[in-house]
Structure formats: structure tokens, C-alpha cells
Give the backbone structure.
Amino acid sequence: MSILLTVLVFFPVLGVLAILFADRGKGESDNLIKWIALATSVITLIISVVVLVSFDTAVAGLQLVDRVPWIPSWGIEYHLGVDGLSILMILLTTFISVVAIAASWSAIDKQIKAYYIFMLLMEVGMLGVFLAQDLFLFYIFWEFTLIPMYFLIGIWGGGERVYASIKFFLYTMAGSLLMLLAILYMGITNGTFSVPDLIAGRAAFADAQHLLFLGFAIAFAIKVPVFPFHSWLPDAHTQAPTAGSIILAGVLLKMGTYGFVRFNLPLFPQASFDYAPAIAVLAIIGIIYGAIVSFPQKDVKKLVAYSSISHLGFVMLGIFSLNAAGIQGGILQGVNHGLSTGALFFLVGVIYEQRHTRLMSDFGGLWKAIPLFSVLSLIVVLSSMGLPGLNGFVGEFTILLGSMGAESLGTHPWIFTAFAASGVILAAVYLLWMFQNVFMGPLDNPKNEALRDVNTRELLIFLAFLVFIVWIGIAPSGYFNLMDSSVAHLVRDISSTVIVGQ
Amino acid sequence: MNAYSLAPLLLLFPAIGVLFNGLIGRRFVEADAKVGERWSGWFASLMAIGSFVIAVLLFLSLQANEFQAMIVPIIDWISIPSANFYIPWAIRVDTLSVTMMLVVTGVGSLIHIYAIGYMHGDPNFSRFFTYFSLFIFFMLILVSGSTYLVLFVGWEGVGLCSFLLISFWFDRTNAAGKAMNADAGRKAFIVNRVGDFGMILAMFLMFWAFRSLEFGAVFNTAVEMFEQGHVVEFGLFSAPIGTVLTAITALFLLGATGKSAQIPLYVWLPDAMAGPTPVSALIHAATMVTSGIYLIVRSNVLFELARESGPVIFGVISTPDLVAYVGAFTGLLAGLIAFTQFDIKKVLAYSTVSQLGFMIAAAGMGAYVAAMFHLVTHAFFKALLFLGSGSVIHGMEHGHHHLHEHTHDDHHGDGHHEEAPFDPQDMRTMGGLRHKMPTTFWVYLVGALALSGIPPLAGFWSKDEILAHGNEHALVVYVILAIAAVCTAFYMGRQLHMTFFGEPRHAAAEHAQESPRLMTTPLIVLAGLAIVGGLLNLPYLTQAMAEANHNHPAGIFLGLEGWLEHSIKSFELSEEGILHLPHTPIVLSPVVAGISTLLAVLALGGAFYVYRNKPETAADPDPLQKLKPLWWFRILPFETFYMKFIVPPFNWLANWLAFAVDWNFWHDFVHNNLIRDMFVSFATFLADVFDKFGVDGTVNGIGSVTKGLAGGIRRTQTGFARTYALGVFLGAVALLAYFLWVLY
Amino acid sequence: MPEVTIDWYIALSVILFTIGSLGVLLRRNAIIVFMSVEMMLNSANLAFVAFARHLGDLDGQVLVFFVITVAAAEVAVGLALIVAIFRTKKSINIDEMNLLKG
Amino acid sequence: MGNPIIFLLLAIVAIGAAVGMLTSHNAVHSALYLVLNFVTIGVFYITLNAPFIAMVQITVYAGAIMVLFLFVIMLLGAEQLRGVTDVKGGERVHRAVAGLLAAVLLLASALLLFQSDAPEIAAAAIDTSPTALGLRLFAGYVFPFEVTGVLLLAAMIGVFVFSKTKKRGQDA
């Protein structure tokens, strides 16, 4: 029993209270509010590092568990715990939250107090999602994250923010309802909502597992988003404020992939195995479709948004390889996507703040005007493209390696791998196209000449991203080591349960 | 002598160079252009030279330690215990990798020094050297890695540097306003990625088949499995080892065609000439483009096993044969295209493609040593030619500047040329430069003759080895390559004549000046190497000599053969000896050598004859233009195919998917029109029906009741809180009454 | 002397509740309406405590605890509302607060 | 469950205070009557073996809440507001219905009471110390307790919001 995780999850609430008390109205305390929010998120980051330090990589199961009965009559518990599947997500969340708050510093100029309160609440929800080990608690946090994001998009978003926020809300909500049904079914038949207990007693609902799998899968697939469910993404991403996009890409989408790993695989191993080829096909369509659709986009932010579909396709493919390499690659690639795409959204945000346009045709030759910014952007673009030595490559390579040896993908897994690997080519196509259009070519728009290069704050944010982009790229072993025991356990668990060729 | 542990320095030096120029070099240059450039350029050059010194030390260490291959670990890169996947980052020091290191750092250092002169005055001087050091860094990773994955890191890394350096002048536009340099860089990167696609697939297959990506382990396992006739099994997949090996090697071939610019992926290399000339020399002639050959030579075990597996590809051909044919056809095709080019660097670019084809063909035929030999000599003379052409361009630009400065008081320029955009790389504007730029002319002549295969220059020996090998083992390949060699001699003759002989065809050519010493010195060094490079692997001239020295293939005779043997023969130790590695012919074949020399001389002479006084002015057509079928090669090959049949459909598909399918159909139609609007209209429909029902009901008196009821109900909504409270109590009392009723 | 039983307390509770409800229904002063509500809650509390005593169970008292908390919250919000409304309407006559009118 | 005489005395005081609150014209008087009522009920709690609740009743209700009421009344200067006497047209109906309801309520309760077959004899007195109460609270009511906490938080934020608007209104 440890209350460390509870402290981690709810620490940002203290920040919210502090902001409420600090506010003196009429924008007098705007700076104070920003600093409070930043300090809160930094302290949360530090707490998450404490979690990391207390984390024992040799243990496969849940650690630092905080478990008390909550509604005993229904078997609902307040149950937090962390293991190899979630530790990276926790660190990603706290990191991205700091970055997102820092990235909003000058971009948000109205209703500052509410904005930062929502940012901190968002962090609470996201951490809760990754730490909750009780399905009911998980569901509450899952839905809770919608609310701050809804307002972040709806109040501080772009031109069509209301449409985008409602679509985001309804879309994800609709998917979640089926999951709620599945949760209630399992919880009521087993008398417990605790995930480890349900996994231990999954035989009880083995007959219904295919349906239950779909119930969960649709909710998660919408969040990810897996190919045909992606329609909310470009709207939400393009309309959200920069920090919203960073959080959306960095963490929210990972909630979907995390859900698959945390719930679908261990709870319904046979169904996961049976549906793996279908999901892998959707993932691969997503990889290729997302990449192709990114290419002709005129709006940089939309291009990045669509590229997320492609990247997340890799993650899904890795997870449904159902082997150690694939799943570890998938989880790591989730982190990588959070870093690279988060950084891409940030860089779009930085130039948008100055030029109030995101159309590629308005740019060109920026390298001449703002060289430092361009070099930083280049590294980010290369990371997103999967250049070896940077983070994206490690993830993609491990995923594809896993998919090649995946039993779940039948007798010719190399077909899946080959199609997925073509995404590597397409990534170069659209990302270089974007890079060329924005940063290369002649500097022919006089407005772009007046751009200023990165200031200290932006540079620090970029460096924060780059540290991890390079670190994961050249020394990923530590990251894999964090999740190795848990993933190995999960894979053993699946392969010992699954009947091949059923 | 044991300097193995110094190997990491090999990478460290260029890394320091990158950091120096990347972080502070710019400030130096901005503070004081002259001193700054010297610091920036020389620092990078010294780092390259430092790496060269380390490479030499490694070379000596190998000599002193009986050519023992050594693995020097640096860090543990990727390790996933549960997936049994371990990739250490280690440097493999063996004769093959050290050969490549020497070429890369040796030629690289010379080109660095040359570039200090060439890039003089460029505002982004330090950025250029940052990229250059970065390139050396990645290239050394490529050749030094002990696993395929580390090799791949370098492989992609040099692709990146190539992209950055090609688009170095990213703001240059062509007449149509397109950012051509940036376009060319992007094209190079993307085409290379197509090759990389093959590489990574090959690595996945290899990992699951042999459970390792480390060179030694892979080769040993492969030989072992092959001998035992294992079936490769992983997951639910199973295939005979021969098929798997063929697939792996074929995918490697795809990788090599990308990086080494072979059919069908050679199209990026000619465009890459948009970059600064030192880049063309270093990356697109001497080093990076040869990494495909390095890959094949490095994987010689796998290729030879694939050869033994028989014709697996469609049942007609084995991978090594396919490699040989790809190389040979590329050699010929590129040679033909080179006839039709006017840009001095593009001729050289196609020539590079052609020569790379020779090397690939040699590797495919199993003549790995010959391939490496040609790789080394080619690095010398092609770097020389490119740097020479750079010197020419530099001179022409100088002349052009000179012209501009004196337009008012000088009448050399005729108005026509002044207005047309001047292209300093167009050979039609040159001519007669041998008097203006004598040093450049002489070194260029050496390079051109070496390339054409005139004895006793380096190119003759290496090319002849390949041809002799072809003559012995693959006659078709030999014939094709022999024709390609003729083409080589012819287009080099054409280039020589158009550039250096005849009369100047443009005012700029008249004012061209010799390049500074900083540029010509490396040229002279390279020319020296191009002359004596053949000594590296001189064959025995007679059978008697060979027999006398058969067991000691060292010294000046077949030095490279004896040296590389320690890396390339490794798998021959297989027990049954079923695998036979064809070696380079040990004795010079007088027939083959005689024929090629004769043809080369004839072709050179022919070129000089055809171009003896043509074109007379820059606007004149080329004499070869009369040969329509030949001239078609200017437009016909793969480039056109891609531009017509791959790129537009892709653009169309992307636009269609993005705007028609995803946005208009999926986003707008399905979500907005179908789902949302249908929901809305369903709701409206319900409301309408209800309404209609109400209207109809009025007739029957129901309407009025409804209305009255509604009005009545509405009246209850007084807005007075107390009224509502009353309602609540009414309800409470009603409930109470209900309980009472239940009780009694 | 008759024994005081639970019925006595219930009766008292009902009477107080009725008085409170009359206050809610009849008075127009919003503050007094609130006070009446408080009184109703109190009568319920009384019943709870009486039941707890009668049944020998602490749950009744625990519930009173919650009721008091809710009441406190309600008063806080309610009074804040009244103050806010008074600022705009210059009146706390509950009959003038008819924004809910249909 | 206490002495009948004391009960009746206290009951009369409680009902009297309640009626006083209902009928006072002056809001301050109403509030004071209510305080009296609360205090009486607090005494009832003591007789009912609930000392802790009694204490809470006095401090929270009679103390804090009523002070708040008085504070607001004073703040608004609303003690002179119209009482129950001014009757308008619709008011009669309203009052009639209210009276009727009250009667029904009383009647029904009485009926229920006299019909109840609950055991007349009360259970033995149990441990009602604050410790016991606290243990009970946290053993079986953790979730409601938390919800209550959230409710208080919500109320707090709500009050913040209201007072905020008011302040801006003043400034503007």
C-alpha cells in the first residue's frame, strides 16, 4: 500500500485550488496563475520521477498499489497501480503536461485562469486513466478527460472550434458507451471491477469475450484513432490550441493504445488473437492512408494531424503482433509519437503565433529567416520520419520486427510487414514535402522575413523534446527495460491461453 | 602494434567536428569571414584527417595482428531481453571495413581541404562543414558497424546528409521558379528510402531466420543452416533456407540500387548534382554511393549461399546473377545517357552510375575483390574528375564575374549571352580551357584517361579485372560491360574535347582563371593516386610469376586480394567445401586487356574526331543529335517513366484520397450529412409528425384539447418558486396518501 | 407517568416539518424560506436521531451528520444566491424571482 | 428516552419557536426564533443519547449557519421586508392549499403513527461516543463521505463564482 500514486494523480488539484485562491480578477494575476500552473505540473513531473525511482523493473505485476474498497456492494474499488505497461505513459503524461503548459505561455491570452485550471484537470484525468486498475474507476477518469479537452478546444480553439469540440466529444463519448456496457457486464457477472481480479477470473466471461473485446475495442479504436474512426481527429487537432494539440497527440491518443494493451489483450486473449489480423489490416490501411492523405494537405497542422493516423497505425500493428518485440515497440512508439508529434504541433504553434496562418503556401524559405528554429524543426521532422539514431526509428523498427515474427498474423506475416514498411517511404514523402515547402525554397514572402527566431522559452521547450528524442534514439535499452518484465509476462500469459487455429 | 581500442575515436573526431561547426562555427564566420572560414574549414578537415590517422592505425594494427578481425564495443544500443533482441553498438575492424575507412577518410580529407577553397565566400560556410563532418560521421558508422542495424544507421544517416548537402543552396530556383535544389535533395532522400525499405525488410527476415543481426553470427548461422538444409521457421511461417536467403539478398539488392544508384532507382543521382561540387565528389562519387557495393561485398556469404540455392526468383535467376545483370545494364544505360548530357557534372554523374554498375556487376559475379578494387580506384579518379569539374565551374564563374565587372568598358560579351541566364556548368559554353586552367586540365586529363581505362592508370587495372572476370564466368555480362566501357571512353573524350579543347564558345570561358592552390593541391594528390592506384592489386603478368608466388599474394602484386581475403573468404571454411568463392583472376589476361585498351583508345579518338570542331558556338546542336536512337536516351529512361507514370498518379491518388474521399466523403458526407443530418432530420420528422397529428387533431377537437392542456400546463409554469414548492409538497402528500392506502 | 416513546419524537418531528413546510409555502421573504427549509431538515434529523436511539444503531446519527453537511452547503450557496439576486433586483421577494416562467 | 415532562416542555418551546419564526414580521426575529428552535432540538439530541450530534447541532446550526443568516440579513438590510400579512388575490388559494396540505400531512402522520406496529420498547443504549461515531462513519460510509466532500467543494466554488460576479458588477 502506498499513497504515492494517489498523490501523483491528485496533485494538480492543489494547483487548481491555488489558482482559484490566487486570482485577483481582471487579469492582474495572470502571470502568477501561469507560474502556479507550471510549478504544479513540474512538481507532478518530479513526483512521477519519484514513482520511476521507486519502480522495480524486475516485477511484472502492479506496483505501488493503492487499493481500498470504494463501493463494496458492487465490488468497485479505488485501485491505483503502476506496472511496465503504464510507467512510460505516466512519465509521458507528466512531461507533456509541463511542455503543454509552457507552450501556452504567450499563445493563450483570454480566460487565462480557466485555461490553466482545465490543463491541470486534464492532467489529473490522464494520470488517472493510466493508473486506474479498477474498470469503474478507469471509466470515470476516461470520461473525465473529455471535459477539459472539450473546453480547451471549444473555448481556445480556432475558427470552427465549436464544431470540432462537439464532434470530438460526441465521437469519443459514443464509443465509450459500448465500453461501459462491456465493463458493467464483466463487473456484474464477476462481482468485481478490479482488473487483476478480472484477468484471473476471465474464464467466467470467456464465451462472451469476442463481443466484450469489440465493446472495448471500438472505444479505444476511436480514441487511437484506427482507420475508419479517424474523422474527428483532423478537426480536433486543427481547431485545438497548440497546447491542446500537443496533449491530444501526446497523451490522449495513447490512452487508446494503452487501453488495448492494458485491457483487451489480457482480458480477452483469444479474441485478441482472433481479431489480430483484422486489426492489423486496419492498422496498415491507417499507416498508408494516413501518410497518403497527409501529403496533399495545405494546412501544416492538418498534415501533422493526419500523420498521427499513420504513426498510430504502427503502434496498433505492434500491439497486435502479440509478441514481446511488437508490444514493447508499440508502447515505445506511443511515447515517440507523443514526443515527435507533440514537437511538430509545437513548432507549428510557434510560427502560427507570429504569422496567424498555417498554410504551407504562405511559407517557404524560413531557414533563411530563422535558422535555429529551422534546424530544431528539421530534427523533429526527422524524428517523426524515423531516422535511425532518433527515437522514431527504434519504435518503428521494433514494431515491424515484431510484426514479422507474429504468430497472430498467420503464416505470412511478412505481407503485413512489407505493407507497413512502405509507410516509411511515404513518411519521407509527406514530411520532406512539408519541410521543403515551409523551410526551403526562396524566402519570397516579405512577411516571413520579419519572423523572429526562437526565444529562450521556446528553445527550452524544443530542447526538452530533443533530449528525449535523441536519448530514446541512441539508448533505448533503459526504456525497454522498464516494460520488459510486464510485457514478457503479458506475452506469456497470452500465448499460454490462446488456441491457435481456432 | 595494437590500436584497436582507438577505434571509437574514428567516430568521435567527426562528431566533434559536427558540434564545433554546428554550435559555434557560424559565429566564427560571422565575426570575421576570412579567419572564421579558415577556422571552420580547417577544423573540419583536421577532424577528417584525424579519423584518417585512426584508420591508418587500425590498418597497421591489422597488419601486426595477422589481419585478425576485431570487434570494439562502444555501447549497448537496443536490448529487449524478452524478445531476445540485442543490438550492441560496436565497431568491426577487419580488412574490409578498414579499406572503406581509409577511402572515406582519405579521399574525404582531401575533399574537405578542397572545399575550403571552393566554398570560400559562401554565407553558410560553417553549415556546409557541419554537414560534411556529419556525413563523414555517418559514413564511418556505415562502414564500421558490426551489425546490419548499425550499418543501417549509417546508411540512413548518409542519406540524410546527402539530402542536406544537395539542398544546401535550398533557395535556388530554376527558370520555372521551382526550388530545384530542394527538390533534388528531397528526391534523393525519397528514392533512397525506397531502397531502405528493402534493407529493413531484409533485416527483419534475417533476424527471425538467424536470430541475430551481427555479421559474424548471421554468416555462421546461415552457413550452418544451409549445410544442414534447414527449413526456416518463425511464428507460423516456414520456408526453405534457400528461399529465405534469396529473399534477403534480393532485398539487399533493392537497398543497393537505391544507395548506389542502379536501375531502377538511379534517377536521383544526376539531380543530386545540384549540390556543391565537393559534395558531388565526396558523396555522390567516392563514398556514399559505393555503400551499396560495400553492403553486397560485406554480405558475400549470403550472396554466395543464395547463388548455391539456385534460380529461386521466378525459377529463372538467382540473386547474385540478378545483381550482375542489374549492374551490367545500369553500366550500359548510364553510359548511353552520358552521351547526351551537356552539364559537365551530369556527364560525370551518369558516368558514376555507370561505374557503380561495373562494381555491382563484379560483386554479382562473385568478384568481390575486383568490385572493391574498382571502388577504391574509382574513388580516386572520380573524386578527381568531380573536383576538376568543380575547378572548371569555379573558373567559369570567375570568368563570368569578371565579365560582369567589366561590362561597361569591355566589349567581350555579346548581348545575347549576357541576357540569357548563364549556366557555368554547361559544356557548350566552355572550350579551350586548357590554356586558361593548365593544372586543372592536366589532372582532369589523368582522371579522364584513368576512367576510360587507358593503361597504366588505375582505372585500367580495376576495370580490366572486372572484365576479365566476366569473360571467365559470365559472358553476357562481359559483353555488356565491354560496350559500356567503350561508351565511357567515348563520352569522356567528348567531355574532354568540349571542355578543354577547341576555342572558347562563351566570353566567360575566355576569362576563366585557374583555381587557387588550396583547390589544386588536392587535385594533384588525387591525380597521383589515380595514376598509381593500380598498384593496389596488380595482377601477375605471367603464369610463371603467379605460380612462383601463388601462396603469397601480397606485396605489390594482388595486395588488395591478399588483404581482403581475410574478410571475404571467411565462410569458405565450410566443411564440405561446396561453396566456392570465385576469385579475381590472378594472372593478367592479355586478350581481355588488349581488347579493352584498343576499344578505349579508339573510342577516345573517335570522340575527338566527331567533336573536332563542333559545336562551334554554344547554341549549336550536338553532332550526336543526328543519331536519333541514341539521343532518345536523353529523355527515354526511367526518369520519364517515374515522372509520367508514378508521380502524377500518386499525386492524383493523394489528392483524391485526401480531399474527395477523406474530407468530402468521409468527413463531410458521412459524418456531417449522413450521421448528423440524418439524426437532425429524424428529429425534425418526429416533430413534424407530432405536429401534423396535432393539426389534424384540431379538426377532431383533439387539437384544442391538446392546446388547452398545453396552455394549462404552461400556466403552471409561473416561475414563482413558491408555486413549485407547492407542487413538490403536493407530490409528497400524494406519496404519503399512497403509503396510507397501501397500509390499509 | 407515560413513557416517552419513539412516537412522541416522530410526532414532534412531523409538527416541526409541517411548520417548516408552511413557512416555505407561505412566506415570501427568501431568507425566511431558507430558514424554513433548515427547520424541515432539522425535523428530519430529529427523527433520525430518535430512530437511532430506538433501534440502537449508529447509522441514524451518521446520516444526521451528512444532512448537516448538506444543509451547510445549501445555506452557503443559497445565501450567496440571495445576495447575488439582491444586488441585481434590489429585492429578496421570492415572488419577483420568476426567471423560470414558462 | 427521557422524562415526559421535560420532553413536553421542550416540545412546546420548540413548536412555539417554530411558529414564532413562521409568523415574525421581522427577519431578525425569525432568525432568533429559529436559533431557539435549534437549541431545543440540540437538547433533544442529548436526551436521545447523541451528545456528539447535539454538539454539532449547536455549533454548526445554531452557531455557524444562523450567524450566516443573520449576517446576510444585516448585510441586505432586509429585516423590514414584508411579512405574511399582505395578501393578494391568488394568495388566498395558495394559503388554502398550503393549509390543507399541512392538515393532511399532520393527519396522515398521526394515522401512520397510531397504526405502526413498531416495538414500543427502545433498544439498549449503545456507545455513541464521537470515536464510535467516527469509526462507523469511516467503516461504512467512506464513499458518501467523499461525495459530501465533493459537494462542499462544489458549493465552495459556487459561492466563489457568485461572489465574483457581484464584485465585477460593483466595479463596473
